[in-house]
């Protein structure tokens, strides 16, 4: 998988730090340096996230909602809280009209915005999740983004299915996590090539490409959160990216 350096622009940062190849971003978020997107694609996603930040910071929304947007290839995941459904719908409609937004995934909860203490706890959970991922040789250089909202951990990035399962298993066993929600876009794993002991012909252990999740549509669409499944430890739920 092609890897390039991430040019990171952080906004609304409550806690920043660095460990290995993972950089801390917005509160409750971790961004990974290794990323298969082109620099232009990364910049476009950052522009989208900044525009979402400007939308939810409008005076009419103060004390009524707390929402952050995470964009990957123009696919925007909205997480947070809103006290009113009408306000949330208004925000979603504005996000859908942002330049280069393809799809909006709404995972915002209808409840009171989190307190500073709750936000700090989410940041600590994110730190624990990313630290454990860094400690795992199979994941420490993978482009996985971690977002925590009210003890719900959202995992995003371009990785293969096996790596996604490993990441989910790590996250759902971290103390304090009540639910893990997958928002990965799956890529084809690299073929494993081995050298035989006698034959001159090398063997290639090729795997069939994993079907890419999500379907293109005309204009930006809004996708609701659904499909929860019970598992040992924290609940694991998928979001089709």
UniProtKB/TrEMBL annotation:
Domain BON positions: 121-188
Keyword annotations from UniProtKB, A to Z: Signal
Disordered: region residues: 195-241
Keyword Cytoplasm: no
The UniProt record lists the keyword Cell wall biogenesis/degradation: no
Residue stretches of biased makeup (Polar residues): 231-241
Pfam families reported in the protein's UniProt record: BON (PF04972)
Signal sequence residues: 1-19
Protein name per the record: BON domain-containing protein
């Amino acid at each position: 998988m092609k890897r390039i350096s991430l040019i990171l622009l952080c906004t609304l940062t409550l806690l920043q730090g660095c460990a290995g190849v993972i950089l801390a971003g917005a509160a409750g978020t971790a961004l990974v340096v290794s990323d298969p997107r082109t620099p232009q694609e990364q910049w476009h996603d950052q522009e989208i996230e900044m525009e979402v930040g400007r939308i939810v910071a409008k005076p009419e929304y103060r004390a009524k909602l707390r929402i952050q947007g995470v964009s990957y290839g123009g696919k925007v995941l909205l997480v947070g809280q809103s006290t009113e459904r009408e306000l949330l719908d208004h925000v979603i409609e504005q996000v859908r009209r942002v330049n280069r937004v393809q799809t909006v995934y709404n995972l915002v909860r209808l409840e009171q915005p989190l307190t500073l203490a709750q936000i700090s706890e989410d940041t600590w959970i994110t730190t624990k999740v990313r630290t454990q991922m860094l400690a795992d040789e199979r994941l420490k250089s993978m482009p996985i983004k971690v977002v925590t909202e009210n003890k719900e951990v959202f995992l995003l990035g371009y990785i293969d299915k096996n790596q996604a399962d490993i990441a989910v298993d790590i996250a759902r066993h971290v103390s304090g996590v009540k639910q893990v929600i997958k928002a990965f876009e799956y890529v084809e794993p690299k073929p494993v090539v081995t050298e035989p002991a006698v034959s001159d012909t090398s063997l290639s252990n090729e795997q069939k490409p994993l079907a890419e999740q999500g379907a293109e549509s005309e204009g930006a669409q809004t996708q609701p959160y659904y499909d929860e499944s019970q598992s040992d430890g924290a609940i694991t739920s998928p979001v089709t990216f």
